[in-house]
Design brief:
Length: about 150
């Protein structure tokens, strides 16, 4: 009888540790998503500020490319951090659900290799079209229609 209770106790402790691990992963996922929102807001604000800076320089007739380059580099650093956070979110999601959250390599952008949403028509990173060459094109559609009589 004591062996049965020992087995039940070990099983309960194991289940508890699994639940505890999932709670930690969910907390991490929430934290990462909050960080992404902050980074996205910072990137948007810096992009808007860059636009204002370039416009002001254009209006004044004095272009200071070093200032523009500094702002661009800051935006690129933020975008790099965003990509890192997204990879962390994907890994956390995969660990939580035991699935692969990212698309296979064949379903990534042909232009830059970034993972893309199933419904995406264009890559959100580089703007490359997701359509396969020839797929959905008018010439292919016309070829599949029966000839007129």
């Amino acid at each position: 009888m004591s062996q049965v209770f020992g087995t039940l106790k070990n099983g309960a402790e194991g289940a508890f540790s699994v639940v505890q691990g999932k709670i930690q992963l969910k907390n991490l996922l929430c934290h990462l998503r909050a960080e992404v929102k902050i980074l996205e807001k910072d990137c948007d604000e810096r992009t808007a500020a860059l636009g204002r800076t370039v416009y002001a320089m254009h209006r004044s007739g004095r272009m200071d490319l070093s200032s523009v380059n500094e702002q661009l580099q800051a935006i690129e650093r933020i975008e790099g951090r965003l990509k890192e956070k997204q990879k962390e979110i994907d890994a956390c999601f995969d660990a939580l659900h035991g699935t692969s959250h990212t698309r296979p390599a064949a379903e990534r952008c042909r232009g830059c290799g970034s993972p893309m949403a199933d419904t995406a028509r264009y890559c959100s990173t580089c703007g490359h079209s997701t359509a396969d060459p020839g797929r959905g094109s008018s010439t292919r559609l016309l070829q599949s229609l029966p000839p007129r009589q």
